[in-house]
Every structure is written in C-alpha cells, then in structure tokens.
Amino acid sequence: MRLKDKVILITGSGSGIGRSTALLFGTEGAKVIVNDLSAEKGEETAADIRAAGGEAVYYKADVTDPASVQPMVDGVIATYGRIDVLFNNAGISGVGALHEIEPEMWDKVVNVNVRGVYVPSKYVLPYMMERRSGSIINMSSCIAEIGLARRAVYAATKGAVLSLTKSMQVDYAPYNIRVNALLPGTIMTPFVENYLRTSYADPEAAINGLKSRQLSCEIGLPEDVAKAALFLASDESKFMMGSPLYIDGGVVFG
Ligand code: NAD
C-alpha cells in the first residue's frame, strides 16, 4: 500500500476528481479526511471508502471560511494527531470574457479557487511545520499556461495557484514540506459536464473541439488525475518540490 496510515485531507472530495482521489487513496491505506461543502456528497464519498474496507471521515467546511476550516483541521489533529498530506482540490468554474462577467462572479471564483487554497494551508501548515514533514498538492490547471476563450477569471485563478505553489515551496522547504501542483486538461466530471451543457448549444461538438486541441484522442477521466495525486501524496515523489505535474493528454491549444 502506497499511502499506508497517512492522514490525508482532500478538499472538495464529494465529487469529480476529489472523490475519485479519495476512493483511490482509501484503497492505498490512507486515513482519508473527506471535505466538501455538500454534506450529502461528502458523506457518500466517505461511506463508499469505508464500504470498500478503507478508513474515512467526512467534515463539512467551506474552504474559503476560516471559521469552518480551522475547527475541521483541529478536529482531525485531535483524532489522528497529524495531517500528512493536504490536497487543495476544491474549485469552481467561471465562464465568460471579462466584459461579460459580473464583479460578483469574479470575486466568487477568485475566492474559492485562490483563497480556498490559502485558508486550508494556513491552518494545516503549522502542524506540518511542527512535525517537519508534509506534502501539499494544489489543484491548478493546464489553463494556467494557455489561452482558452471565455475562461479568463478561471485561468487567472489557476495561474495564481501555480505561482502560489512555487512561493509556498520556498517558504516551507526548510520544514521538509513539499508543495506541488497538478495541471489537468479536460477531465470529464460534473464540473465540466455542467460547463459544456450551459455554454454550448451542442456539447458533443464542443467535446470534439476540445479533443482536437490535444494530442490524445481521449478526454481525461478523474482516475487519471487521481493517479497523479497518488504519486505526489506518496514518498515516491520525494524529490519533486514546487513542480507542475501535467495530466492533460498533451494539450496544444492556444
Ligand atoms: P466538481 O465540481 O466535480 O467537484 C468540486 C467539488 O468541490 C464539489 O463537490 C463542490 O461541492 C466542492 N466545493 C466547491 N466549492 C467548495 C467550497 N467553498 N468548500 C468546499 N468544497 C467546495 O469539480 P472537478 O472537475 O472534480 O474539479 C476539481 C478541481 O479540479 C477544481 O479545482 C477544478 O478547477 C480542477 N480542475 C478540473 C478540471 C476538469 O476538467 N474537470 C481541469 C483542471 C482543473
């Protein structure tokens, strides 16, 4: 088992990539702390891990809100004594060119996608620093490095997460804490299904358009990203520090 007894907190793990990662980590021996805004989805992920013979507990918390994140982190520490891995996965989309989106949407996407990395990290890091050990995985996106129509605010947040990852790595390397970023391409999750359904008259044609802009003829699956997260969570990636890890089918669009 590649994560035996590691205590791992995954934000936004009630759905999509986070859920798939939580299920995989459960089979690899981790004690999985499932977090999500949705209690229904979070409880379901935790129950599915336990049903498969793993160990999991669900905590409801909004990743942007210190008043709910701090008690979650303190609760995990009280139960398990440590957090070995923090996967800052929770995120939301925002569609529209800048002149089309309202300031409220800008603030919401920036808040969840960037502040939602800062807040859990702020409360987990002191415990990792004390133990001089830890791995933090931040969810960026390949969109951090390329242009894609009508995704400006989302792209800006994912660029910020990549930049934050590098700064965090410098600050916490002296404490033997690794901080790396995942950069997925298009991964078929409820998040993307919703984006395709609400943004395109013909979602099937849109998927084919996305496929034509990558080297692989497949659209990515949540499991593809979960396997990359497993590598970053495990000690197998001990020489990776502040690195972007691409899981994007060879995206070439610009
Ligand atoms: P998803 O919508 O399936 O899952 C996201 C989960 O996060 C949901 O369960 C949601 O309830 C939860 N969440 C949202 N806001 C929250 C908050 N404030 N506090 C706690 N939980 C919250 O999405 P997904 O596709 O699995 O995306 C997961 C991450 O991967 C996101 O950060 C997304 O930006 C990133 N990503 C996705 C893709 C893709 O193509 N799906 C590509 C690159 C990056």
Automatic annotation (TrEMBL):
Segments forming a coiled coil: none
InterPro entries: NAD(P)-bd_dom_sf, Sc_DH/Rdtase_CS, SDR_DHRS6-like, SDR_fam
Stretches that traverse the bilayer: none
Keywords: Oxidoreductase
Entry GO MF terms: oxidoreductase activity
A Pfam entry, by short name: adh_short_C2
Keyword Zinc in annotation: no
EC number from the UniProt entry: 1.1.1.-
EC main group: oxidoreductase
Similarity field: Belongs to the short-chain dehydrogenases/reductases (SDR) family.
Protein name, per record: SDR family NAD(P)-dependent oxidoreductase
Organism in which the protein naturally occurs: Paenibacillus aurantiacus
